[in-house]
Design brief:
With 126 residues, this protein is mostly beta strands. It has no helices and 11 strands. The strands form 2 sheets. Strands 2, 4, 5, 6, 9, 10 and 11 form a 7-stranded mixed sheet that branches. Strands 1-3-8-7 form a 4-stranded antiparallel sheet, with no helix packed on it. It starts with a strand and ends with a strand.
């Protein structure tokens, strides 16, 4: 499985950006696609996830809840992260990840993900 992320860039605080990620390769029935981010000198942290297991469920880090929206298309294995009201502290390299048969308690933890895309830089300036 390969993940291809796109989007990102530079934006002034308060602005918006959209990230997209497409998975290619094997097809899974129950899986999750997520975004993590890593700022300089900090550990990688969970941002948002969408999990398909029967229906779909979304999960957000508290720091982005109400500002970011994750959506996806299970059949197309694509996920989009709409980032609104961006803040300088959102500056980071954002990574797309996919995990197979993740349970709810696992979606926020990077170690449970099987596949990772290349990072894309998001820079928010004030």
């Amino acid at each position: 499985v390969q993940l291809q992320a796109s989007g990102g860039g530079w934006v002034q605080a308060g602005g918006s950006l959209r990230l997209s990620c497409a998975a290619s390769g094997s097809t899974f029935n129950n899986y999750a696609m997520s975004w993590f981010r890593q700022a300089p000198g900090k550990e990688r942290e969970f941002v948002a996830a969408i999990r398909w297991s029967g229906g779909s469920s979304t999960y957000y880090a508290d720091s982005v809840k109400g500002r970011f929206i994750i959506s996806g298309d299970k059949s197309k294995k694509m996920v989009t992260l709409e980032m609104n009201r961006l803040k300088p502290e959102d500056t980071a390299v954002y990574y797309c990840a996919a995990g197979v048969r993740l349970i709810t308690s696992s979606v926020r933890w990077s170690r449970f993900y099987d596949y990772w895309g290349q990072g894309t830089q998001v820079t928010v300036f004030s």
